[in-house]
Amino acid sequence: MEREDLFSLSYGSFENQINLFELESSYTRPDSQISMKDGIFYISNSASGKIMQMTSFGDLLSIIYNVDKNPQPIFTNSENSQTKATTRKSVQYPLNHPTFLAITDNKQLYVVDSVFSDRVEYDPEENLALTNIVIHFNEESEFVNYIGQEGIGGTPFPIIEGLYTNTKNDIIVVCRTTQSIKVYWFSADGELLYKVPIFFSSLPSPYREGGSFFSSVETVVPDFNAMGLYVKIDYYTEEIDPETQVSAGINYDKSCLYFLAIETGKYENKIDIAPHEETETDAAGTNTNKKVFSLIGISQSDKAFFITPTAKGYLLGILDLNSLRLLKRDLIITQDEQVYNALNLSTNGILSGLLAKNNQAEIVWWRTDKIIGESIR
Fold it and tell me: Which Gene3D superfamilies match (predicted)?
C-alpha cells in the first residue's frame, strides 16, 4: 500500500514542534494522538498540554496551549503578526494531558483531557479514580464547555480509551473499568442519550456448550449511521497437557465482531475475524503462529479496518461488513519509525499516522479510501 509522507515535526516545545518524551511525566509512554478531517490534521501533544491544527503541508493553522507548559508562540510576537493572525490562531487554555480527538462535520473539536489532581473524583463501587473529561472547542478553537458522565459539566469519566462522532455530530465516549466497558452517547448539544455498560462477565460466546474459554473485549467503536456499537472480542481456550490432564495455559483461538443494537441491548450479526497466520522455520521445525488483528475503526461506508504487526510494519485488513470481502495490504513502516505510532481512521476511510523516530515525528497517510471506493469529501 503506497504511503504518502506529508510533513515532519521536530522535537521541542515551540508551536510547530512536538514533545513526545517528557522525562518528568508520570506517564510511562507517549500517548499523543492524531486525527484528520477534510485534509486538516489535529495533533494532541499530551506531554506539552497542547493541540495543533495543521494543513497536509505542515503549515500551522491554530494552536491551543497551556501557558504553564509552553512558550508563547513566536508568530504572536512577530512584526507582521496582524497579517499572520488571519491564517494562524493561538488560544490559551489550561490543558493538562490531552489525548483522543474527535472532529464533527461542523468543525467542532472534542478532546479527551485529564483533570488536575484536585478535581479527581472517586467511584467507591468500582474502586477507581475518575480522571477524564471531554473538552469542547468551537471552529475558532475557542473553549465552549466540557462534558462529563451526566453531560455538560458532569462528573469525570473513568479512563477513556476512545472518542468518536457520527453523521449526527453526536459524541460517543468509550471508557474501560475493571468490570466493564462503559459507553456514553451524547447528542451534539451535550445531552446524555444512552449509557451502555458492556460487562465482561456476560459477553456473548461463539462456542457450543462445553469447554473452557476466556474472552476479552479488545475494542468498541460506534456505527456512524445507526444507533449501535461494534464490539470486537478475542477468545482464548484452555490448553490441557495430554499426559497430566492439567491446564498448561491458554492459547488465542479466534476473534469475533458483534453489532450491539443500543435500543434493544442485543448482540447481532456476529462476524468471525480470522487471525493472520505467519509460518516460521528453525532448527526445531516449522511453526505456524496466529497473530491477532486489532480493530482501528469503521468507516462511514461500513468498512472495518484491522491491523497486526509484521516484519514490514503492519498488515492492514479492510473488511466490507456487508459483503464480508476482505482486502489485505502491507503498511510499510521502517524499524526506526516504530519508536511510537499513533494511527487514526477518518470517517471516509483514510488512514493517517504519527510515526515517531529518534529525531523527529513523521505525519503520513495511506489513501485507503481509493481502494474502497471512497474519496475525501
Answer: TolB, C-terminal domain
Cα(240)–Cα(250) distance, integer angstroms: 9
CB atoms < 10 A from the CB of 119, how many?
Answer: 12
* Residues 163, 110: Cα–Cα separation, whole Å: 8
- Other residues' Cβ atoms within 10 Å of the Cβ of residue 355: 24
Assigned C-alpha cell, 302: 461500513
According to DSSP, the β-strands at 101-103 and 109-114 are antiparallel
DSSP state of 56: T
Amino acid (1-letter code) at residue 225 = N
Spatial CA neighbour of 221 closest among 344, 136, 97 = 344
Q: And the C-alpha cell for 260?
A: 450491539
Please state the rounded mean pLDDT for residues 336-354. Answer: 95
CA dist., res. 165 & res. 101, Å (int): 10
Identity of the residue numbered 73 = P
Strands in 187-274 per DSSP E: 192-199, 213-222, 228-240, 247-261, 266-273
Instruction: Please state, in angstroms and rounded to a whole number, the distance separating the CA atoms of residues 377 and 374.
Output: 9
How many C-beta neighbours within 10 Å does residue 38 have?
A: 11
Given a cut of 50, is residue 269 above it in pLDDT? yes
In terms of DSSP bridges, do strands 4-10 and 33-37 run parallel, antiparallel, or are they unpaired? unpaired
Cell matching residue 312? 514490514
Cβ count within 10 A of residue 149: 20
Residue 97 has pLDDT above 70, yes or no: yes
Confidence of residue 23 (pLDDT cuts 50, 70, 90): very low
Contact 98, 107 (CB under 8 A): no
Q: Is 371 helix (H, G, I), strand (E, B) or coil?
A: helix
Antiparallel, parallel or unpaired: β 60-65 and 50-54: antiparallel
Averaged pLDDT score across all residues of the chain: 91
pLDDT of residue 286: 76
Grid-cell match 495533533, residue found? 43
Distance CA 377, CA 217 (A): 32
- Please, are residues 28 and 22 in contact by the beta-carbon 8 Å criterion? no
CB atoms within 10 A of CB 334: 11
